[in-house]
Amino acid sequence: MAALVRWFWIPEWQIAPGRVSRQHLIAFPASNLVVGPDGVELSGPSTRRSHRDLSGTGWAVGALLRPAAVPAFTAAPAELKDTAQPVDLPDLQKWVTEAMTGPADRHRLAVDAFADWLAGVVPAPSPEALLANAMAELIDADPAVVRVEDVAARLHVSTRTVQRLARRYVGLPPLTMIRRRRLQEAAQQLRDDPGTSLAELAAQLGYADQAHLSSDFSTILGLTPSAYRSAVTPES
């Protein structure tokens, strides 16, 4: 299962009648398979900040798919960029819903049901699919990777191969994946340490200067680093 799913996630909510809770999301540049009470959705890779409005009572069980799992659900992940589409997977929906509506230990049982379904449906990853996993892991984990050429060199393949893997298994250009990871790091640091110097943060993440970081941040996340820092800093 480790070759197919990065992690499972399970939100549950109970919002007072007449109220709406808006959840702002900075999602990973990857696809998610999400089960809810009303069906199953495949959401494609995200390139910008998004939000979801929650109301009433509900739940979802999602799997953040690794690249190797994506071709089992779509041959063109780029067509799902920044969107989601319903998928007809009645057994998955039935198994997970039964677990989530059970009397106890529903989270563990839901994840087990989801994992069992995936194991029975998704073929064993090919060497190319595992290489796509390695590409995504490298981009996510190595802050020294700031160019597509860096990825190619570490994987001992050509830049064209990296681009092809990203297109087929992720649905985004590899440079977009790198930029997204750097911005997630920037956002995390601003949340954890609001006093972080933006100039130092830009240098740490491999940007030429603070202006380039601010430009990327604004373009993809919809607000400047300073505005984001103000928004996530608790009032004293």
TrEMBL record:
Any GO molecular function: sequence-specific DNA binding
Any coiled-coil regions, as ranges: none
Gene3D superfamilies: Homeodomain-like
Residues covered by the HTH araC/xylS-type domain: 133-231
Presence of keyword DNA-binding: yes
Pfam families in alphabetical order: DUF6597, HTH_18
Protein name, UniProt field: AraC family transcriptional regulator
Species per Swiss-Prot/TrEMBL record: Actinoplanes awajinensis subsp. mycoplanecinus
